[in-house]
Amino acid sequence: MPVGGRPAVVTTQPAPFPISVTHLADVPGLVRCPHCHNIVTSEVTYQSGKAAWCTCMLLAMMGLICGFCLIPLMVRGLQDAHHSCPHCKKHLHVYTR
């Protein structure tokens, strides 16, 4: 028994379970790869999508040229997340904004 006469409390967390590939968001997720059937944490790469380009065009039409209209292309919150499997490198899902 530990000091003080109280028993030690041991808590355990449940094992993580993979989510469906279609429920991936803009952060890596634990999934079962449909190609190699391994349970993996997806790799995420970010690429400019429709939201970034539309914001860029809107800023250009408002007169913010000289490079200011290109700022949305560098903001991660406006980019699409492309998920892939780290083992087989196959494409899993695209989370669009």
UniProtKB/TrEMBL annotation:
It is a peripheral membrane protein. It is found in: Endosome membrane; Late endosome membrane; Lysosome membrane. The chain crosses the membrane at residues 50-75. Its main location: membrane. Residues 13-97 form the LITAF domain. One of its GO terms (cellular component) is cytoplasmic side of late endosome membrane. Keywords: Membrane, Metal-binding, Transmembrane, Transmembrane helix, Zinc. Pfam families: zf-LITAF-like. The keyword Iron-sulfur does not apply. GO terms for molecular function: zinc ion binding. Belongs to the CDIP1/LITAF family. This is LITAF domain-containing protein. It comes from Cyclopterus lumpus.
